[in-house]
Amino acid sequence: MDLPLFRHNRRDRSVAFKEYRSEGGFEALKRAITGMTPAEVQQTVIDSGLRGRGGAGFPTGKKWSFVPRDLPGPRWIICNCDEMEPGTYKDRVLLEHNPYSLIEGMTLACYALGVRHGFIFIRKGYEQAAENLARAIDEAKKEGFLGERILGSEHSIDIDLHLSAGRYICGEETALINALEGKRPNPRQKPPFPAVKGLWAGPTVVNNVETLANIPGILARGAAWFKGLAMNPEGAGSKLFCVSGSVKDRACVELPIGIPLGDIIDGPCGGMRLGKRFKACIPGGASTQFLTAEHLKVPMDYDPVAKVGSRLGSGGIIVFDQDHCLVEATLNLITFFARESCGWCTPCREGLPYVREILTRIETGYGKEDDIAILREHIKYLNYSFCALAPGAMAPLDGLLRHFEDEVREHIVKKKCPLKK
Amino acid sequence: MISEALKKSLTERVAGAITPREAAVDVMKELQAHYGWLTDEAVAEAASLLGLSPLQVEELATFYEMIYRRPVGKKVIHVCDSISCWCADCDGIIEHLKKRLGVELGGTTADGMYTLLPCACMGRCGDSPAMSVGGTPYGHLTPHLVDEILEKERRA
């Protein structure tokens, strides 16, 4: 199957500009700028059914449509390459192999929305990706695909890089906007939504790397083609799945959206590691609920995964085996979220360390039966936080209590971790 | 004190920004590279360059993982302890690093070479367990490989 995102990949190096061009790269941009109106570009993206690949899965074209057409002053597009969700590394792999799809996709998005200036917000630690992008921007400018008067048209579009200094909250779209403005990256109150009042108070669209990298393929080959890539009837496109944990080959792979979970693990990942049995996995990065062996046939697409109580999220699949203690795994996840809380609101700042404390007690044999009820209460209360960080943190805990309550209780009854010798 | 050349390049970076404070992270990173960490003097200099108060710079500096408001060693080791690395026994790697360097997490080696810090997910989950040394990422760590990397980085 001809999947769009990794089609330009070379085995262990970044594709060269010339190669990208000779394989049809920048043709979609050329066609759009010379023969399509911005509204037509936007409509094609709406028709394609593309949903945001950052985690929330909101329809991309619809998100674009929230930007008012008639507001005066500059408007902005920001590419979110913060990618600090544990278990997620697809954007890095994509950019290390091919920065051009993002540049082309982002330029197309700017064209569709009448944006003159885009930013790529890159997390610290992704220096190789940033280097690739800087080179790709220069090359695209030299060849007339970016910069002043693109391909001789009246449209001018610039893209700048912003290298961050590392904090998970910077991936939240309003916190990211604050970070880019040089303010402390706390999330902002919504509404107003960024589409109306975002970066420097202008209309702003924040899209993920993988989302934008899909745009050239959609424009080149059409919305129907993109829809047809999916394995399930309601799906659209391919998806980058980055697998880690207890599989033989931990890999970032592009597969049709809607592929069953088990087929990802047994196919490109070569199955479980020797002697290990599948116990559970987190399907979409740290802020998603555990899935169990009964879910291996679930199509990996937004709605089917939501239907079984989890989220497709970023597509970062973390696989656990029979020797992994899921209380300890959840404790690890909560520790991450507690450390990364920006401290802006009380439920998150106070609630996460308390949940961490209770899980530590349970894991080390000091848990009480009441602790399970207290944890359940926190899953409820932490939904009242200012942004999605705390509810995201509660997702694996919710999954733990839903599918593995017996394992939690065993810790309490035996006064020790049953998986520790 | 920073050199006139560095001051000029930072002033240009600030002038080229859409608003001065957009350049805040870049300025802090440059000053940190100059001093080795973001000293009080650097905070004051950043504030003056960005047209902010030192407190406004401070609230940014203390927010970010990669800005150090305390002295650090010549190279900082960020060792990932997030879930994918946990699956790959990062705890064992962290214990090995602590033993080998003779420091706890947050500590700096006696010779001032390394500071050992835990970090949020590095985005190298496919290569776990992972760490970065002085900004260079390393994956598929084993105790033996860690020793080799420490030796190589010490000489580099």
Automatic annotation (TrEMBL), chain A:
Species, as recorded: Citrifermentans bemidjiense (strain ATCC BAA-1014 / DSM 16622 / JCM 12645 / Bem) (Geobacter bemidjiensis)
Any one Gene Ontology MF annotation carried by this entry is:
NADH dehydrogenase (ubiquinone) activity
Q: Does the record's keyword annotation contain Ribosomal protein?
A: no
Name of the featured protein: NADH dehydrogenase I, F subunit
Q: Which UniProt keywords apply?
A: 4Fe-4S, Iron, Iron-sulfur, Metal-binding
Matching SUPFAM superfamilies: Nqo1 FMN-binding domain-like (SSF142019), Nqo1 middle domain-like (SSF142984), Nqo1C-terminal domain-like (SSF140490)
Q: Which family does it belong to?
A: Belongs to the complex I 51 kDa subunit family.
Instruction: Return the InterPro entries for the record.
Output: NADH-UbQ_OxRdtase_51kDa_CS (IPR001949), Nuo51_FMN-bd (IPR011538), Nuo51_FMN-bd_sf (IPR037225), Nuop51_4Fe4S-bd (IPR019575), Nuop51_4Fe4S-bd_sf (IPR037207)
* Lineage start: Bacteria, Pseudomonadati, Thermodesulfobacteriota, Desulfuromonadia, Geobacterales
Domain spans labelled NADH-ubiquinone oxidoreductase 51kDa subunit iron-sulphur binding? 327-372
Q: What domain of life?
A: Bacteria
From TrEMBL, chain B:
Pfam families in the record: 2Fe-2S_thioredx
Family statement drawn from the similarity comment of this UniProt entry = Belongs to the complex I 24 kDa subunit family.
Protein's gene = nuoE-2
Needs which cofactor? [2Fe-2S] cluster
**What are the entry keywords?**
2Fe-2S, Iron, Iron-sulfur, Metal-binding
Is the keyword Signal assigned to this protein?
no
Q: What is this protein called?
A: NADH dehydrogenase I, E subunit
- Which PANTHER family does the record match to this protein? NADH DEHYDROGENASE [UBIQUINONE] FLAVOPROTEIN 2, MITOCHONDRIAL, NADH DEHYDROGENASE UBIQUINONE FLAVOPROTEIN 2, MITOCHONDRIAL
Cofactor binding, per record: Binds 1 [2Fe-2S] cluster.
Q: Where does [2Fe-2S] cluster bind?
A: 80, 85, 121, 125
Q: Which InterPro entries match?
A: NuoE-like (IPR002023), NuoE_dom (IPR042128), NuoE_N (IPR041921), Thioredoxin-like_sf (IPR036249)
GO molecular function per UniProt: 2 iron, 2 sulfur cluster binding; metal ion binding; NADH dehydrogenase activity
Superkingdom is Bacteria
Residue intervals passing through the bilayer: none
